[in-house]
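Exercise 7. Given the encoded structure of a 212-residue chain, write a plausible sequence.
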């Protein structure tokens, strides 16, 4: 009998995404057709045990997308109260988390300064992400590029209110360097969001597929 992540999710009354997240946390990247993956008894036990800890983690049953949406709403209220001034704390880690599903492979060690993960095909991937909202300037930029020792830059733009994906692009290091401007103030190159959207290769479908 085939037992899929969706079957386990129904049994435990959690979202299918949450089941996949637990599996990936323990197994690394998952195959593209994971929704039809036949789980072993060991994997089912692992998911059940992990989600049983929810007494100490009241939000354990929510998917990552649900949590980020709530996080964004909380930060918006805290900004309105002048408690905090920014809302990008989990953005970089979340972008790498999603990119790992897209490219496969493994995350780079913290000591690697020029790239964030090594894809399953061996490419070194630099991941950059930013959120946008109604007040975002048309000239908004990604975080600074201080070196170009990578094979591909994966550039993501997310909705500030929900962390939902708006678009994703790929650029070579040569394209990034040629299309960005040098800033002495930050000692690096700044790439405008509009430039990346215009000149990069559209990989939005690949990201949308793993987020679906």
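Solution.
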């Amino acid at each position: 009998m085939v037992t899929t992540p969706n079957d386990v999710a129904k049994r435990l009354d959690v979202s299918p995404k949450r089941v996949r997240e637990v599996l990936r946390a323990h197994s690394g990247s998952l195959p593209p057709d994971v929704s039809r993956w036949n789980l072993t008894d060991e994997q089912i036990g692992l998911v059940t045990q992990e989600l049983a800890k929810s007494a100490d983690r009241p939000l354990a049953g929510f998917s990552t997308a649900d949590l980020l949406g709530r996080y964004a709403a909380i930060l918006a209220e805290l900004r309105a109260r002048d408690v905090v001034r920014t809302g990008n704390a989990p953005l970089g880690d979340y972008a790498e988390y999603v990119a790992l599903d897209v490219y496969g492979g493994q995350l780079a060690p913290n000591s690697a300064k020029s790239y964030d993960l090594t894809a399953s095909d061996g490419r070194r991937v630099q991941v950059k992400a930013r959120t946008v909202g109604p007040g975002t300037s048309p000239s908004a930029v990604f975080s600074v590029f201080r070196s170009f020792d990578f094979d591909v830059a994966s550039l993501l733009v997310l909705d500030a209110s929900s962390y939902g994906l708006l678009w994703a692009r790929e650029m070579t290091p040569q394209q990034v360097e040629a299309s960005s401007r040098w800033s002495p103030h930050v000692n690096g190159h700044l790439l405008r969001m509009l430039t990346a959207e215009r000149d990069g290769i559209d990989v939005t479908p690949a990201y949308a597929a793993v987020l679906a």
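Remark. Strands lie at 106-107, 117-118, 124-132, 152-159, 165-171, 181-183, 188-190, 201-202. Students should compare their own answers with the one above.
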